[in-house]
Structure formats: C-alpha cells, structure tokens
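Homework help board

Subject: predicted structure for assignment chain

Our instructor gave us this sequence and asked us to write out the predicted structure in token form, then describe one feature. I got the tokens but I'm not sure how to describe them. Can anyone check?
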Amino acid sequence: MKSVSFSKLFSKKSTIGFLLLIVGIVVGIQTNAIHGYNNFLIFKTSNFHLNHWINLYTWHKAEYMDQFLYSPAFAVFIAPLAAIPLWLGLIMWSLLSCFFFYISVTSLPNISINKKMTVFFITLIEFVTCIQNNQTNAIIVSCMVLAFICFEN
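My token output:
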C-alpha cells in the first residue's frame, strides 16, 4: 500500500475544496440544530416581504430579532434560497460562502499552492465563524479578493 505524506495531502487545491465542502455541510447542519440562524431568517423573509410589498426596513419582531440592512436587490438575489426549506437553505448558504472562499483562495496569483494552503488555514477560523453566523462578510471579502485578482491579471 502506498503511503501519502501529510505535506503532499495538504498541497493540493482539491484538499481545500474537500475541506470546504465538509465545513459548509457541517456548519449548515450545526446552525440549523442550534437554531442560530437569525441572519439567514432575515435574508429568507426579505424575499417574502419584497414579493408582498411589505416594507423591508421596519422591525418584524414576530419573525426575527434584527433589522434588514441590505438593498432590495439582495432580497431578489436570495430568492432561490428563500424558496427551499430552511435547513437546506442554511446548508446551501454555507456552501455558497465556501464556494466563493475557495475560488478566491485558489485563484491568488503568483503564489505557490503551499502558500495558498497557508492563507487558507490562517483564515479558516475567521471564515467558519462568519458562516456560523450566516453573515455575508465571507462572500463580500471573497468578491473583493477576486476583484483584486482581476486587476492584477
């Protein structure tokens, strides 16, 4: 049987993808299990409010414990996740964040895969914290990194 060294295993882009797939699914399930999805509930119900001409920016205390702070375009963007059951939407939201994070880390220009893995592991804890709270920060930062990459190319 051929042995695989630890350094070889963690020197591939597919390892980042696999780890993020696992993280996204586990965090989505965890968030649903502990009912820690207030932010996602705000996103999900914003689409309903927009479709029924209900003011997005008033307090909807019966539905969630915060205010909607985004543009109406975000309520349209979230429509596919609003149409599916909550538990599946949480997993898909986490996986969407993971997808953007994966693309931004693996696309970093002029950096070896080992350095990309270092960036990945240094930022992983903050990334997981962000997706555990169903925040948009991970997607926003990933888009900023991707914009930088486009400017560099």
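Reply (TA_rk): Your tokens look well-formed. For the description, you could write something like this. The chain has a mean pLDDT of 91. That's the kind of observation they're looking for.
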